[in-house]
Every structure is written in structure tokens, then in C-alpha cells.
Amino acid sequence: MKAELLNVSTGKAEPFTLSDDIFSLEPRKDILNRVVRWQLSKRQQGTHSVKTRSEGSYSKSKIYKQKGTGGARHGDRNAPIFRKGGVYKGPKPRDHSHDLNKKFRRLGIKHALSSKILSGKIVFIEDLKSKFEKTKDLVKIFDMYGWSNLLIIDDQENAKDLSKFTKRLSNRDVLSVNGINVYDILRREYLVITSTALKQLEERLQ
After folding, report:
1. Could you tell me the pTM of the whole model?
2. Exposed e or buried b for every residue in 171-185, given b needs 16+ CB within 10 A?
3. E strands of 26-101, at which residues?
């Protein structure tokens, strides 16, 4: 697959070839949906909890005798039928995560990258050096190309340095190749990948 490698300093682009196995797939929403659900379920804390009938602070003794009151039969005051009583089948702390094998997760990344190619919202650049004095120096580059909402994928070392600047910016994130994921790719409008990161990414996903 043909693409262009942009030099952000000069604005010039050179043609190069992408791997068809990674960037030329027909995006499938069901695969993307499954991987995103897997990611978000891992984030879910699952610490929600309520008190059941056995955990209430009221006395466990029978509130009144069984017969002769003219009212309904009741046991202790913690029964769910009473106000401030225990909750019947309420939420308890649990793990919301579920398994998804590595092969399927890699496939999800491929489909996410292919969807960005199809929409024309992916940009390949030679590099984005992190030797900036201020955040506004980086913002000038973003504004020059209209990247108001983007995710940058770079190698481990440079991504760490760039994140010091982008953490002050909204809707502009940086990830290393090791941290690339479907959710972050899809939630940003533009995806910017450096040449070094692209090489590592293709090696990882082959």
C-alpha cells in the first residue's frame, strides 16, 4: 500500500510502502467493539457495594410476634421490605474484566489502523524531536497542519519526552509503540506515527 512520509519542518512528503497485512484490512466494527469493551472493562473498578440483610446494623431479633397483630408476618428489621433495610441482590465488589487472547487484540489494532487509513486521518512523519523549550513550540506545529485532536505514536524514549509537553494540552496525547491500543486510536481524530515507531509497529504486528 502506498503512503507518504511527511517532514514536519519542511512540509515536504516522500512516497513509501506500507504493509498491506496491517493497513489494508476492511475494518470490522464487531472486532473493534470487542477489543474496546475488553479495554474499558479492565478499567472498571468494581468497588460498588451495598449492605445485605445479614450486614444491617439493626437487631436480628423478630420485631413482633408472629400472630395476633393483624399485620403481615415479619422477621428482623433488616429485611429488604423495610426502609433502610438490607438490599436484595445488590452490587458487590467484583472484577469486571474478561479474557481476550493476544491474537485477537493484535487484530483489533490492525483494524483500528486500517479504519484511520480509510478515513484519511492518519499521518506518517519522519520524526518529531522533543527538543522544545516551551509547549507553544509544539503547538505551532500542530496548528500548522490542523491537528487539533490527535494521538502521536513514537518510540519509547521520545514518547516519554514529548508527553511532558502534551500533558498540558487537551485532546492531544502521546503513546509509545508498546502502549498503542484500539480505544486511544479511535477516540482521537488524527493519528500521527513517526517513521521509527512505524518500523517497530510493523515488526510487532507481523
Report:
1. 0.83
2. ebbbbbbeebbbbbb
3. none
